[in-house]
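Section 5: illustrative case.
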């Protein structure tokens, strides 16, 4: 890895928020699906830099995951893609790209409770 790549990776990690997100947790997968409309554009915007920061294996997996949707994240996300994403994109990068959205959801939103309340009122 060249000096600039190493520096870029270090800056990325240092400047990413210190979100404590378990990207493989089912609650995180659910949060990403619920907020996919917000997550998708940020994730797609970050794709051009992916080849600069990912290992060959990570890049190959990401390409495989995105192949059905033409190299972009699909409009309708699947649980399977979300579960494999941390293997293709390191958690520090996921934190930097979409961590603020997911962290806010995990800390502040109670989607299950909101759904239950709505069902009670109906």
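Designed sequence:
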């Amino acid at each position: 890895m060249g000096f600039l790549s190493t520096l870029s990776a270090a800056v990325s990690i240092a400047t990413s928020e210190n979100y404590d997100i378990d990207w493989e947790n089912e609650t995180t997968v659910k949060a990403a699906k619920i907020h996919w409309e917000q997550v998708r554009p940020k994730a797609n915007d970050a794709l051009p830099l992916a080849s600069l920061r990912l290992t060959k294996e990570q890049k190959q997996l990401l390409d495989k995951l995105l192949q059905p949707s033409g190299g972009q994240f699909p409009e309708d996300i699947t649980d399977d893609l979300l579960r494999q994403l941390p293997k293709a994109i390191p958690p520090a990068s996921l934190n930097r790209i979409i961590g603020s959205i997911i962290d806010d959801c995990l800390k502040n939103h109670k989607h299950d409770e909101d759904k239950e309340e709505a069902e009670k009122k109906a």
